[in-house]
Amino acid sequence: MFSQSILKNITRSILRCLTASALLLILLTAILLGPPSSLGQTSKGISKTSSEKASGGPRTALVIGNAKYTSAPLRNPVNDARAISSTLQELGFQVTLLEDAGQKKMKRAINRFGKTLRDGGVGLFYFSGHGMQVEGSNYLIPVDAEVDAEADVEYEAVEAGRVLAKMKTANNGMNLVILDACRNNPFARSFRSASKGLATLNAPSGTFIAYATSPGSVASDGTGDNGLYTGELVRHMKAPGLKIEEVFKRVRSGVQVKSDNKQVPWDASSLTGDFFFVPPQEQLEQQVAKVALPQPSSSEAPKTIRADEEAWKLVKGSQDAEDFRFFLEEYPDSSLAGAARIKLRRLQRGQAAAETEAARPAEEKPPPSTVTFVKSFGGKHADRGLSVLQTGDGEYVVAGGTRSYGRVGVEEDAWLIRTDSTGNEVWWKTYGGAKPDVATSVAQTADGGFILCGVTQSYASGGTDVWLLKTDSSGEESWSKTFGGNSNDYGYSVALTFDGYLITAGLASTNIQPSTLGGSDVWLIKTDDYGRMDWSRNFGTWKYEIGLNGIQTADGGFAVTGFARSRHNTKWQEDVWLIRTDSGGILKWERKYGGSAEDKGYSVRQTTDGGFVVAGLTRSYGRGGQDGWLIKTDSKGNEEWNRTFGWEGNDAFSSVRQTADGGFVLTGSQASHERNGTDLWLLKTDSLGNEQWGRIYGDGGGHSYRGGSVMQTADHGYIIAGQSDSWQSPHADLLLIKTDSSGSIRSVESR
User: Is the pTM of this model over 0.85?
Assistant: First the structure.
């Protein structure tokens, strides 16, 4: 883990510059971690009966103190955390200290802590602040928690079990958990149970858990510089030769006496060996006597060491985004912070992986895909696929709508289908109520679940509402949110952001903030990881505008496409609209593209050169009728080129992606006078928009096939979700097509 390795290396650099006396003090601390085998047969820091991973390994601690709560601030937790941190450092622990931390910062730190523990040794977690139990689970409260009801705690707080889970996964051998977090529940009035204190945690093997007070009781915040419990703990941790059980016995005794038996600390242990914060004095003396201290050279000039530069040397080649987040948290004012932000953004968007792939020699690249299939899903009524993705494990997920399942034949339900890598169904789920509902977009979340955006009438406050729904990895609903007002509001796409989700929608309601500027507006909604609105912005005029697709850009801002009405001579017509905002949704610039007839943008992507590509349709240009339209811009939205594709009928693109070779793949629908009906269309271009090949999928029998979403797969093929009205049924089915790298499958007509 980066944080551990950085601090180790910085420590080594600093050691070279220290005086002999300072080095002696640090060496004594290092001895506490366990001496080399040549210094003795056993280490009493951790006895040989403990796990080998803990024996002689590093000591790592995460210490958190939260005091600045809005509703119920505390006096001492930050002081407590500082005192514990200082003491642990004296005792040889590598400490990460957080003060007045919010939920996201706490979770990130716990994740890093868990990764660091994989190196082995002893792990120690300490929390001081508000803690509470809800239905038998313990929660540590961040300073930014907004809890109006008991049900909010799960989403606003950090479950204590998260720490134990990280420790168990690390399998490092020995862990200590200290919770001085049993203050009075600051939200008790809004709770049904209003339970006091914390519940007992089960101690996994090799774990010692200590509580500031007994289960179900509350602890004193103290009247001095430290809480009662932590004050006693700091004092007894430094005593040499005490096993951990004896340390906490003395702490318990001291707290009971000073609280007149009103507070009784508690602990639970599953340790199988001995642990000493400070080994017995005689062993220390023996070890020190055997160590020959290196003498600094008088000719060596003092060196000035910059911690940020040492840290940057270690992480600059990393492909782990967490390393750069940690660097920016530790050194926000560093001259290297700009470079760290750039690398972080590239990693988050997967650009680093794409650059690595592009640089590989052709002979090393994967062979063309051989797995292709055509699958249809549906029943006796209309079903459709609107969004598709490849999951992290190489399977596929499709979102759309179904009238065949759920409330059969009544109204459309949102539909989510997961298949294996060959297109065979793994599971499917429907979501909705008594009225029409549909999922228009899906993305996979970091926890392996899925986030869906769509439109709901069943749960709307009026007309239709924007719908955001989160599921676990099995498609079971975790939560859902609606956004809307007194009219018809539509959610068209959802995108993952650095810290939540972006919804692109159409706003028509006039009774919410922001209300429509007239007709319908482009509506951006930014939420956190739990669907709670961070902000919303609308863009429009008194005419009709719609936002159909939005993304987060590499600099943390957003780009959205759709269409807006503009006057061309005496007529009002739709133009493709591209909007660029900053990270707070504030407009940076907007551009319109089009002619005297109808033009619309359905899909936008940021390209590897920092510009944008927009796909949609045009009636202003092309061969006549309606053509598919591809527009490439620079980073300011200035058009670099545009291409039209199509025949004599009505053709359109619904989705575009940049491919690994720098070109583009698009899907949509194509209608030609040479064939009856509409065909699903897949088209590949080079980086300048020149067509390399095109494929159509259909039967030419007057039926309708449409492509709704496309992406390039890990094997360089393509996966497409769409709709067919006669592949296996006289009614519309959801269609899933997997092609090879040239767009080929069995029974494909090429044009």
Answer: no
